[in-house]
Amino acid sequence: MLGRALAVATLALVILAAPASAGIAPDAAHSPNAEDIRTSYWVMLIVAFAVGIPLIAGLLLAARRFRARSETDPEPRRLTAGRGVIGRAGAVLGAIAVAIFVFGVVMTGDAREAEADESAESLDIDVIGQQWLWRFEYPDSQSETIATVFSYNELVVPVDATVNLSIDSTDIVHRWFIPELGGQVEAVPGEVVETSFRADEEGVYEGQSNQFSGTGYPAMRAWVRVVSQEEYDQYLSDLTENLATAQEEVAQAAEDAEAEAAAGEVAE
């Protein structure tokens, strides 16, 4: 009887857990932060099974054992327990709850910060959310005319570098989330939130924001492109040059407009 109840309980949990493992399991981890999140997910799934199967099996067994015996004798058998049974069961469940809480606190801290690799480069980048795009400001501009080198929507970083992000917003709350590189971080106006990651493989990692930010929300997406150190240096050099050229063209256009306006006033 107990074996049948356990089998039924196991089957029920497997059916319920199948969509979780197949459809909503964390993406493949490519940063220590994302790996901590995946570890937390599977640990909690195992705990749910370990607690849920005995509880469901016990409920099924109790429902069968203490049901009405017959139509002529509908009074069910009464369940009795010795003194202290409820206290001992509560102590076990309480200990599990405390362990889960401590585990969650530790893993949350680890998921926010990637442990720095002393042999790798450390990169500090400002991430600014606004309706409806992300702006990334890179450090150490080498241009005499460009104070800040920046890009929109796509962040480019070198592989194996510890990337420290300082995230804020210019208007409303946005949410920064690259599943394969770490957890979700909210960009809040007037508040700088810090997080970090260290990508272990080159490639393009797509963001999945789930914070509605207005009518242009569908267009507000982010990507992190991880490249080699050489490619990163070349990208930063090209980006600096392109921004400097664009700035010169804007300045020249403004001068030409002023000159035309002045010539028109003279002609009048």
Summarize the structure.
With 268 residues, the protein is α+β, with helices and mostly antiparallel strands. It is built from four helices and ten strands; from the N terminus they run H-H-H-E-E-E-E-E-E-E-E-E-E-H.
Task: Outline the structure in words.
The chain has 268 residues and is α+β, with helices and mostly antiparallel strands. Helices cover 46% and strands 19% of the residues. It is built from four helices and ten strands, in the order αααββββββββββα. It has a five-stranded mixed beta sheet with strand order 3-2-1-5-8. The protein has a three-stranded mixed beta sheet with strand order 4-10-9. Strand 1 and strand 2 form a beta hairpin. The N and C termini lie far apart (105 Å).
The count of domains is 2
Q: Helix count?
A: 4
CATH superfamily of the largest domain: Cupredoxins -  blue copper proteins
Largest sheet: 5 strands, mixed
**Span of the ends, CA to CA:** 105 Å
**What would CATH call the class of the largest domain?**
Mainly Beta
Question: Strand pairing plus helix content: what structural class?
Answer: alpha+beta
Strand order, largest beta sheet: 3-2-1-5-8
CATH hierarchy: architecture of the largest domain: Sandwich
CATH topology label of the largest domain: Immunoglobulin-like
Tell how many strands the DSSP assignment holds.
10
Tell me the radius of gyration.
29 Å
Any low-confidence stretches, pLDDT <50, length ≥5?
17-22
Helix-residue proportion: 40-55%
Shape: elongated
